[in-house]
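Hi, here's the filled form for the chain we discussed.

Project: internal
Contact: R.S.
Residues: 202
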Amino acid sequence: MPAKIVMTAEDIRRTLARIAHEIIERNKTTDNLILVGMHTRGVPLARRLAANIENYEKSRLLVGALDFSLYRDDLTPSEAKSAVQRTDIPTDIDDKPLVLVDDVLYTGRSIRAAMDALIDLGRPRSIQLVVLVDRGHREMPIRADYVGKNIPSARHEEIRVHLSETDGIDEVAIISPPNSKPTVNELEKSAQWQRSYHDSEK
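And the returned structure, exactly as it came back:
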């Protein structure tokens, strides 16, 4: 399938550095701040962000890994159980500010499931959301606090995030199945999403 590279390794590096600065600026202090990566690629992204913040602030951050398979609404119970990975959050999350980290924000259903999983672990003071890529097509009223790159896409396209920790390379590609074209409705929705996003940033 034809693939177009939309973020290189250097793009990802610069993006994570920017987001780290934004997290510091928004939270004023990193005391008690916990970064939680969503399996699979949200975990190494959270670790990279923590390393950046620690480098800038000279303070150590706790980083956790979250499995939300059992909370997903798109898997049967048997599929969810077979997909389970380890949840490892190294501290109590009650009254702590959390930064949830994922690679791609799409319908919002995975984020909803992840928040349900977190709430079952405790009552955090707040939950902020970092995504490397926002591709639109939301089905839930969910919006990221920190976005690496907005990549408008059609539903038939696939956004693939590759990271050196999981895939041996850092890059983001958009893949279109052969002989497929977006419908007029998809193009209109993509344009509407871009307009609404930019209007809200003004």
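Let me know if anything looks off before we file it.
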